[in-house]
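Retro notes (design track)

What went well: tokenization of the new backbones is finally stable.
What didn't: we kept losing track of which sequence belonged to which structure.
Fix going forward: every design gets posted as structure first, then sequence, in one message. First example under the new rule, 371 residues:
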């Protein structure tokens, strides 16, 4: 089976790496997604353990579609009866970019009609109640190349289940996990976030350090399908539990000037099962100090497009440049869309990486060298 894992732009390589480690075959990273092959075990394992993709889908087909007729005929030719029962629900959603078929609602309607026509011929039915298990059909049309998948995740994989509430402008869990990975956090590392908000970076850092499966506390839509193998999902959950490293020695510390953020961070850490490794306190960035012989700092500070005006954001970056001093054993990472960040911060980054925080194009600036 060929699977498709859509990703935030910039994290495809990380997603491909983890899927290879999980046993995925023929893994290949592409723009905004990763394709890989495997069986039912890998499908369950990927949904439970993937930190960086947005969801896992079954790739039914790819073809060129420059007209609605091409789209209809190619979708109709796919083996829908192998995946959809007579009563299954199969809503259609998707996107189109830089393509002749640019109307998403029209594409949805054409794809839905094509699937219905295929199933009519196979099941000898004229109407489908769609009251059974959900099989959401997703399409992507990019430069006239269409990809058709069936979603196996349900809610996006960033929905870990520990953050029912959050502060303003929260970062997706998948992006937070990617930032932590890029910082090369050690399992026994000391991690700091001086703008902790709802604690997402801290919790993702703790989960990575202790190898806690991000999907362990949630369900997935593929588990409800008639063809699902409950024993496979049970074994994969047990396997994920056995691979946890609760004694890794990780310590995470968060600071925020808002007492509500500190309280929410601690609540979410408890909900995520990592409260023993995470602490938080009210503290201004001006009072930040390195604590200990080594540490890793990653943060998503408020900026002009999110919470602060440009002048206030600039002052914040200048403060960060003063308190984030090069020191042996310490590394710093800052994600921001501010193109003049390095100039305002006062130092050129040792490494930068283009990423997207939602729809906002950002750079992740990393500092880890010292003289």
């Amino acid at each position: 089976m060929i699977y498709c894992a859509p990703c935030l732009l910039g994290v495809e390589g990380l997603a491909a790496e983890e899927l290879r480690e999980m046993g995925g075959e023929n893994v290949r990273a592409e723009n905004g997604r990763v394709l890989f092959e495997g069986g039912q075990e890998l499908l369950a394992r990927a949904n439970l353990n993937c930190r960086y993709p947005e969801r896992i889908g079954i790739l039914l087909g790819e073809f060129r579609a420059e007209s609605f007729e091409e789209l209809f005929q190619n979708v109709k030719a796919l083996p829908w009866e192998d995946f959809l029962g007579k009563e299954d629900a199969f809503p259609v959603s998707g996107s189109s970019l830089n393509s002749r078929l640019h109307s998403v609602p029209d594409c949805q309607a054409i794809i839905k009609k094509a699937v219905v026509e295929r199933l009519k011929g196979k099941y000898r039915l004229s109407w489908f109640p769609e009251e059974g298990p959900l099989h959401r059909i997703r399409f992507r049309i990019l430069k006239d190349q269409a990809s058709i998948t069936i979603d196996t995740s349900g809610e996006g994989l960033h929905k870990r289940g520990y953050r029912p509430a959050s502060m303003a402008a929260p970062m997706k869990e998948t992006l937070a996990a990617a930032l932590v990975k890029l910082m090369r956090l050690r399992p026994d590392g000391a991690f700091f976030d001086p703008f902790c908000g709802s604690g997402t970076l801290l919790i993702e850092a703790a989960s990575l350090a202790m190898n806690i499966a991000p999907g362990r506390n949630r369900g997935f839509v593929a588990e409800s399908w008639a063809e699902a193998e409950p024993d496979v999902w049970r074994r994969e959950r047990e396997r994920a539990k056995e691979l946890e490293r609760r004694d890794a020695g990780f310590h995470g510390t968060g600071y925020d000037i808002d007492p509500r953020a500190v309280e929410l961070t601690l609540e979410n850490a408890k909900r995520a099962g990592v409260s023993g490794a995470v602490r938080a306190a009210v503290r201004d960035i001006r009072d930040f100090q390195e604590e200990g012989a080594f540490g890793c700092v990653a943060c998503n500070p408020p900026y002009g497009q999110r919470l602060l005006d440009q002048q206030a954001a600039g002052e914040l970056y200048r403060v960060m440049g003063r308190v984030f001093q090069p020191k042996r054993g310490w590394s710093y990472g800052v994600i921001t869309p501010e193109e003049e960040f390095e100039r305002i911060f006062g130092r050129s980054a040792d490494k930068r990486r283009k990423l997207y925080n939602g729809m906002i194009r950002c750079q992740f600036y990393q500092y880890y060298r010292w003289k």
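Added context from the reviewer: The CA atoms of residues 110 and 270 lie 46 Å apart.
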